[in-house]
Amino acid sequence: MANKTEASNSGQSQSNNHPQLRIVLIGGRELNGIGSGKSSAGNIILGQNVFNTSIRTAQSEARQQEVFGRQITVVDTPGWWWFFPRENTPKLDQIEIQSSVHLCPPGPNVFLLVIPVGLNFSTLTIPSLKKHLELFNTDVFSHTIVLFTVVAPVSDKRIESNIKANATLKWILHQCGDRKHVLNISNRDDRDQVKLLIEKMETVVGQNRGRPFSVDVSHENALREEIKLLEERASQRKDKAQKQRQKLRALIEGGKALPQHLKLVIIGAQYAARSSTGNTILGKNAFEVNKNGNKTMRCQINQGFFQEKQLTVVDSPGWFYNHTLQTTSEMDKLEIEKSVHLCPPGPHAILLVIVLATAINQSYKRAVSRHMMLFREEIWKHTIVVFTRGDWLGVKTVEERIESEEGLQWLVNKCGNRYHVLNNMDKSNKTQVKELIEKIEEMWVGSEDPYYEVDLNRAEQIEAEKEAGDKMAIRLKRINERKSRVLKEVYGGAPRQPVTDIRIVLVGPKCSGKSMAGNIILFKEMFDLAFDTTRLREMCEDQSNYTTPLKHEGNFDGVKVSVVETPGWFSDQTPPDWIREQLLHGVSMCSPGPHVFLLVVPISSSFTKEDLKALVKVLKPLSERVWRYCMVLFTWGDWLSDLPVENYIVREGKELQKLLEKCGNRYHVLSPYRFGDPVPVKELFQKIIGIVKRNDQHFTTDVKQRKFQLLPWLAKEHILTEEEWKKRENELMEQVMKALTEEPEEGSVPSVRVAESMDDTKFPYMSGDVASEYGSISEFRNQQAHDRVAEWLRNRMKRSEASSGIVSDCASSTHETLDEGLQVEVPFPVNSLFTKMKTPLRMSVNTANVLRRNSF
Asked: Which of 42, 322, 419, 656 could be a cystine partner for 652, CB 3.0 to 4.6 Å?
């Protein structure tokens, strides 16, 4: 259980005559490279290095010291993930947090809620904090001071500015009676800051009339009993595993020959350190680990030796940690299934990677069990659970962790009680690899089948599907680039009305990436991020609390960009009627009307028939005209790695392709890992300006009925309304686009540019690879990127002649030239194209452009 060891200098009095002060340090874990500083704060307060700051705090520990004539006890506790619900915090950590108040009887006088300065809190922090503080079974805020930790001097003005800019911080401080203190944890010599903190804590004691935080003795006894039972079950599991290993090892020592070449396949969820596990086993950087935010998109195979034994290791793509099999994209499912076919006749072992940095709750367990259904049931007989982030255990045993969570018990039992712990941060520890190889050999000896046998016919089918999909993706990309060039030629002139601002409406289901997209576009974290639908379901029992569109604005050197995020819906449910009402409200917030509706589709998920129906239903009140102003915005672009987005479009099938067709095949890719990069935002603005040019106006529900007369050589005295004229023009362009699609392919295949990778998100870093990989982007870099886009927009918006080379309605997020003077030549005979259409031959592309300009 928790450690009650007290630390004090020899010879110092421990007399009860000294005033006592009992403190419990609580708070979240490091995020985006920013550590919480709980242990460091405890050392600063006590003036001694009594808490180990080089490792994770895995259990609550109490230390005592005389400070300024007071007997002070400080209890350090494990942290939780700031943005995750309590069910994601391992049960062992929850028990240790609960135990902390029993280490300083009769109870703590003060809780210090440790928050590092610079951590950008979202509203998701509030329910997470509430749930974790409920572990103490009574009100904690009345005994709490917010302790802001810094590693360099910071002014009070900056602290107040941070608080003022963050509604969540303001809420937390309000709950704590606006009690706060700033502690420089890198300056131990400054004892005045400690003295002032003690004075503030004594004020809290006085406000509570000297009464400590209430501690329930019966609760302490219940925790002790729970720990005792866990330890007993853990001991039984360990004994069972050891006896099982001894029996199999005896067969090996009896002379049974072992395979000299082991074939291993690594599978598991994203962020579980699959690639790092492969590198640790092979003893080299065989697989790229989160390079530029890229995930493992394709199966990769590499070889090496360990103590003269040849190893073949296959790394596979991961699934989103709580996705069901139905919500995983077709592209990912095919690659995961392919992994076992890369080492025929089959792998000797499947290494199911499970990260110890988060609880294996029901949603995580369900995701694992469903994705294992991509293989035959026999796969479990050849599977070993490999736990990564072994440093997370601290002084606890892996058996205690297994017995504390039903999900882990189920997984380990399903694998025949085979499990192993790896610490990928400790590359020099060869013993952990040696023991893993031994366990694989023992499993091989005890198995009726020497390996998991694959179906060679299925392997050929998978390869054929991939090859066909890749060819279709290349063709789709070429067609869309061809369409883009024609659209530039047709709509390359200046917009009829000068564009002085850009108004955007984001539409999509919950957790699709709308908020992330808004922040990327504005170069500032203004929208709160959410990525866990399970969590949102708990938060949104009363969905009426989440019905209001949000609007934020940015100024790009005189060009105002407005982004409205509309409420989302759960993707596995029909959108409620109030969603449509709030969409109309969001449109009204973009007066006189939005220039574009960005329909947000996350690449990390599948796009189903229900998803298409939901978007059509939500947009229906805006009439069919709205589709002229729609563009599909693909988020979570890091999921593509080095693949073009067209691969995702092709493999997801007809539902996504129908959506793109309704949007005129306009789409774009954004990635949070490229937050602060001006290029993707420039390209998005290019495409939005193209929509403005093509429509010659913003979207409005008030359709103008101005009338226009066709030129005499086209019709006699026939009067068209503006809407009819626009409809004819759109029909013409649809025929042009269709003809381009049917145009025969050229003999040579141009090189394929790939969509860039992306996202900087609020995911806590769990894999144990490189601590800085999820680091936040500096404000200076964001400002530089903002200024580059501002300059680009100013040059394009305020010239009398707009660019003829900036419209890119169809193409994905490729790096096309941004020069305004670019003249593009249509790459095929215009006459041959128009012979495929009902429109008279004399209506060439240039004629359409002139005709359109003369009409307004």
From this structure: 656
